[in-house]
Design goal:
Elements: H1 9-21, E1 24-26, H2 32-39, E2 43-47, E3 53-57, H3 59-72
Antiparallel strand pairs: 1-3, 2-3
Helix pairs in contact: 1-3
């Protein structure tokens, strides 16, 4: 699993958003950040249609979000 310091502020905010809402919809063809997070094993994507998928945190993603929250507090 990548270290927290390996992520940009935008990537950290996005992971926290998924952690807060439980899932996020996105267009996987238009977002390099999403592609990176999927390839890192931090999120999974379930395709809804040609333009939309639903993201959920993996166990590793939940661990990272927990650590991000602890460092923010």
């Amino acid at each position: 699993m990548p270290f927290m310091d390996d992520f940009s502020a935008e990537e950290r905010r996005f992971l926290l958003q998924i952690g807060d809402t439980g899932m996020v919809t996105f267009n996987p063809l238009e977002d390099e950040l999403i592609k990176f997070l999927i390839e890192s094993g931090l999120v999974t994507a379930e395709r809804v249609d040609d333009e939309t998928a639903v993201l959920r945190l993996t166990v590793e993603g939940h661990t990272l979000v927990t650590r991000l929250r602890e460092n923010m507090g």
